[in-house]
Automatic annotation (TrEMBL):
PROSITE patterns: GLUTAREDOXIN_2, GST_NTER. SUPFAM superfamilies: Thioredoxin-like. It comes from the Archaea. Pfam families: GST_N_3. This is Glutaredoxin. PANTHER family: THIOREDOXIN FAMILY PROTEIN. Residues 7-88 form the GST N-terminal domain.
Amino acid sequence: MSERIDRPITFYRLQGCPYCERVARRLNEYDLGYHSRFIEPLHSERDVVKRVAGVRTVPVIVDENTGVTMAESANIVDYLDATYGEGDRPDAAAADAGGDV
Ligand SMILES: N[C@@H](CCC(=O)N[C@@H](CS)C(=O)NCC(=O)O)C(=O)O
């Protein structure tokens, strides 16, 4: 796992979801450890994200390092940039090595 953070980020996502992929790319770019939680495709059965974040959409992240729970891919990407970015973003190509822990 990445040593950038003490606790892996929990990442609620859905297979094939482009918004989730956007967040995954950024997590990988910053070499942040995370656990993926793939949720139920059926909207009505997405109780876990509803409970955690108050929404039934994904992506959602829970970052216990900062106490942040967040939905909406654009907000999550902004949050990751602001919290873990160090000026210029690392080359996306170099980031594909990261991933689930
Ligand atoms: N604006 C949201 C859109 C997310 C979104 O539409 N996610 C889809 C999966 S790809 C979803 O959860 N759809 C269920 C719904 O809209 O209730 C974002 O950028 O995160």
